[in-house]
Amino acid sequence: MKSRKVTKAVFPVAGMGTRFLPATKSIPKEIMTLVDRPLIQYAIDEARAAGIKEFIFVTSRGKSALEDYFDHAPELENTLKRAGKNDLLEVLKTTNMDSGAIAYVRQNRAMGLGHAVWCARRLIGNEPFAVLLPDDVIAAEKPCLAQMVEAYEETGGNMVATMEVPPSKASAYGVLDIAEDMGAIVKAKGMVEKPKAEEAPSNLAVIGRYILSPKVMTNLNKMKQGAGGEIQLTDAIAEEVGEEGTGVYGYRFSGQRYDCGSKAGFLQATVAFGLSRPDLQDEFSSYLHDLIAQQKAAQ
Ligand code: UTP
């Protein structure tokens, strides 16, 4: 084993979520629900399943609904207890976090993902850590971060979740330049943020799950002092490729990723998660079926 255990995770949730205005004027994007669970709950569950014990949220103004969500709700719990609604009590329990397991740091200005991660530096210290972007929701038999932790135990260094995208979509992602392709794991020799289709070094795009060495925080530190504007996480990770660096690996996860930061992705996830719920499946699929039939008939 080359790596240290990963027990801390950073959840950057300080973005303005402008693609979901006007909703995000007063509701944090991460509180928006897929069926009946907010996006952040999916990310927390995935982190827990991967052995994360400390949860660090990088928040901003207007995100207090997120903090309230993870608090105990004694009045609600008592009401459910008195009514004998034990199933709902169990559901509520999944939202409770142990005292001290969750920490909030503030990003005062939305200066990019790299800057948001850097805001957690004092809580991370000199340890490897995970980063989960809650707007990337991943449906998988074995949760994505748990798959990555297993692979990371072999590689150490830094690991990013990747998926294959067509060249026309590369400009929406960070893209890996591949040194060695070992199947599920690929070793990177570079990373390019949002390349043009013809300049993309591969078809492997980075999505919102990372396991990072503390060295990446040091890199972000330098960028903080040097650069203006947005601070890119990709650049700080890319510094770790090659002989001198701690190493960067891409991981081709098994599962389906939904970009819930975009309207189309959020709607696709809503349909997919609705259809996968045993309590809704029959009613929902027959509704969709009828809807499509009606649309076809009207054409
Ligand atoms: P996005 O690029 O999706 O930005 O951020 P956004 O502000 O959330 O949404 P749009 O584009 O305006 O609709 C990706 C992740 O990085 C976080 C976001 O909260 C999201 O989880 N982020 C982004 C920060 O925490 N701080 C930033 O300065 C930027």
From TrEMBL:
EC main group: transferase
UniProt xrefs under CDD domains: UGPase_prokaryotic (cd02541)
Swiss-Prot/TrEMBL catalytic activity: alpha-D-glucose 1-phosphate + UTP + H(+) = UDP-alpha-D-glucose + diphosphate
Keywords associated with the record: Nucleotidyltransferase, Transferase
Domain (Nucleotidyl transferase): residue spans on this chain: 13-270
Pfam family, one: NTP_transferase
Biological process (GO), any one: UDP-alpha-D-glucose metabolic process
Top-rank lineage group of the source organism: Bacteria
Enzyme Commission identifier(s): 2.7.7.9
GO molecular function: UTP:glucose-1-phosphate uridylyltransferase activity
Family: Belongs to the UDPGP type 2 family.
Entry protein name: UTP--glucose-1-phosphate uridylyltransferase
Organism of derivation: Gemmobacter lanyuensis
GN (gene name): galU
